[in-house]
What does this fold into?
Amino acid sequence: MRDRLNQWLKPLPSGLRRAIVGVIGWIILMAGILMLVLPGPGIVVILIGLAILATEFAWAEAMLIRARHHADRIKKRVRFSRR
It folds into this structure.
């Protein structure tokens, strides 16, 4: 997904590219946060928003890595508790 997005945005000037990615990413991220209290797959949408933002922003990539780490820990706990 990241390669496809970068390929589409590559011809744009870097400032415009960062602005477009930022607006789209923040809209999706905010929708995910709203879905935490409204019906919908909030956590999944938040992760998608972070993945989009991570294509241009290092802080979003760091948050995405941290989220993956927490997801792996939860997955291991669930597997261990089923035994």
User: Anything to note?
Assistant: The mean pLDDT is 86. Residues 14-82 form one domain. The chain has one domain: 14-82.
